[in-house]
Amino acid sequence: MSAITKTRVGLIGAGRMGSFHATSLAQCIPGAVLAAVADPVSGAAQHLASSLGVAKYFTDPQAMLDDAGIDAVVIAAPARTHAELVIAAARAGKHVFCEKPMAVTLEEADHAIAAASRAGVVLQVGFNRRFVSGFAAALEEIAAGHIGSVQLSRSVTRDPQLRDPASIPQWTIFLETLIHDFDTLLHFNRGAKPVEVYAIADALVRPDFKEKGLLDTAVVTMRFDNGAIATAEANFQAVYGYDVRGEVFGSAGMMQAGNINLNNCIRYSPQGISIDTSRQDTDLLRDAYIAELTEFVHCIHTGAQPRASGEDARCALEIALACIASVQQGKPIALRG
Prior knowledge:
2 domains, 10 helices
């Protein structure tokens, strides 16, 4: 594919995740070229763009969206800005890949979905677990009926270290962390709708930040309309490494997906058996992050529908918001379905 036919992608957000996506776009994604970087933080966009040999950079994301030389955008800005950026990008006729969550209210989600639909642009959301090989294989097995009737499912996210609790917005554990698990459980239980959510959460890693609104540990129970039961759990400090796993149990067997291994090497020594573990999501899930951007560009070129749509993001968000209500009210919350 020649450079002329490549999708010219602009990145919004030059932080840790944005920098990783920028590098992927510049070096790893067939059919795409990183054409610009935007970030309102002074010098951030210029520094990232220069490091990757990109000529265009902006402090105003809207200025980049107004640029006719940009075909699509990847949004990796702070979560609370996602919906407005999705809407602005769609209005500018740009295809949109947005990191999760796509929005933090259902009203915002509806506006974002509607804007993309009106503009006729691709809208994909960064639910990267669907692109992890083990999770993707499990979803295919479930879709083929090999697990039988799903009865129990479980999804786990444990971050390796809580570095700066003061910088974490309230309800992050549901809106930005467990939202991955909610998407996973919805697809483990494909065809069934969640009808009730019960969540408990506390500050067990940093109890001193609880009064400031930080909850760092949570367990969620979900019930589906076919009777299946699912659980999701998260913690912000797993001292042994970044831990992402899933399990689905059905009438015909069980499947598990995910691990914490940095590589396939197992060490046998006088001290016992050990492995090296991942300490960053961009290490453990590197291939999945690249695969989801590859699919985004493929959808732009072919008109195919992305695996993780705006509607999928809305479904996961509805569960996250129900969890917040459950914690606040101390009781199960019924979902509208």
